[in-house]
Amino acid sequence: MQSKSILVTGAAGFVGYYLSERLLQEGHTVVGIDNLNDYYDVNLKHERLNKMKNHSAFTFLKIDLADKAGIDELFATHNFDMVVNLAAQAGVRYSIENPDAYIQSNIIGFHNILEACRHYPVEHLLYASSSSVYGSNKKVPFEETDFVDNPVSLYAATKKSNELMAHTYSHLYKIPATGLRFFTVYGPMGRPDMAYFGFTDKFFNDEPIHIFNNGDFENDLYRDFTYIDDIITGIMGLIEKPASGHTVFNIGNNNPEKLMVFITSLERALSNSLGREVEFEKIFEPIKPGDVPATYASTDKLQEAIGFKPETSIQDGLQRFTDWYVSYYNKK
Ligand SMILES: NC(=O)c1ccc[n+]([C@@H]2O[C@H](COP(=O)([O-])OP(=O)(O)OC[C@H]3O[C@@H](n4cnc5c(N)ncnc54)[C@H](O)[C@@H]3O)[C@@H](O)[C@H]2O)c1
Fold this sequence. Notes:
The protein is of the alpha/beta class. It folds into two domains: 5-185 and 227-251, NAD(P)-binding Rossmann-like Domain (Rossmann fold, 3-Layer(aba) Sandwich); 187-223 and 256-293 and 311-328, UDP-galactose 4-epimerase, domain 1, CATH 3.90.25.10. The protein is built from eleven helices and 13 strands. The strands form four sheets. It has a seven-stranded parallel β-sheet with strand order 3-2-1-4-5-6-11, sandwiched between helices. A two-stranded parallel ribbon has the order 7-10. A two-stranded parallel sheet has the order 8-13. α1 packs parallel to α2 (42-52), α1 (14-25) packs across α8 and α3 packs parallel to α5. The longest helix has 21 residues, at 99-119. The N and C termini lie far apart (44 Å). The mean pLDDT is 96. Residues 10, 12-16, 34-37, 45, 64-66, 86-90, 105, 109, 128, 130, 182, 184-185, 191 line the site of nicotinamide-adenine-dinucleotide. Nicotinamide-adenine-dinucleotide binds at residues 10, 12-16, 34-37, 45, 64-66, 86-90, 105, 109, 128, 130, 182, 184-185, 191.
């Protein structure tokens, strides 16, 4: 793909940072925006931005998606060829505590992006949706054609709403738009609010980890864990293939793991990184409201479109995470 001018929202975030890096490596010009909120340790967001500050083709601007005038001015000033909207209030559980944040960033914020793409046309709008739109669907693997009208958290409802809003704007204003349904993304410099990161923190704080799976390993929760590099390769493949209208893709690894297998793999990876035996102290709890029993992506549509499907094993991916963690936080 020839060099493009690309807006990445949520550029200080986990996925936004890795995507911006990859786009810069491929010779694109990237404007990254983020409101740098403190939903999780903001030092990590600064750390990610720091890594990009020497790229001459990267510009960072602190802008909130919900600031309509700010977003409008951004689009008026830069002539974006493409937009990747990754900024959002993420997390399923926090949407029970602070629903307002989800409406502000995910609904009002996304609407501002759509309006901007209407008034300043782009070749392709991509935006983050989520596997959570599948709710507690029983049929696996989840396919893009499945019925997704039963979200079980406000977070999921905002992501499903984004798909509807994008569909409408794409239809009315001829915006080529692609929704990306990510399945639990993990990796180095990932999100501290996610379980694998929190478990690792707890181990070093000598605290037990709480596992919300009823302690029933036969009927354990299944999660489709996707390594960050696979997510980025998926986005890079899709970015070059604007649909004529609106479409959605799963990006997951099509190989769900039991939560307990994930946790023992994390213990093993951490043991390797530290050179000593690690075992978490575990407390089993009931499944939390809004958590779904299984996430499992069909990747057929993705593979057909770009000839790629995520394949990094949790053993390899978690090893890279724990190696980073131990070195970044200087753990022994
Ligand atoms: N990581 C996952 O497992 C996962 C799974 C499914 C979907 N997603 C979606 O992918 C996207 C990226 O997720 P992530 O894991 O990188 O999360 P993240 O929280 O690390 O990144 C999101 C970034 O957006 C910024 N942001 C939030 N609200 C904003 C606003 N109103 N204005 C400007 N910036 C704002 C945050 O400061 C943050 O840096 C999100 O839309 C998320 O919902 C992530």
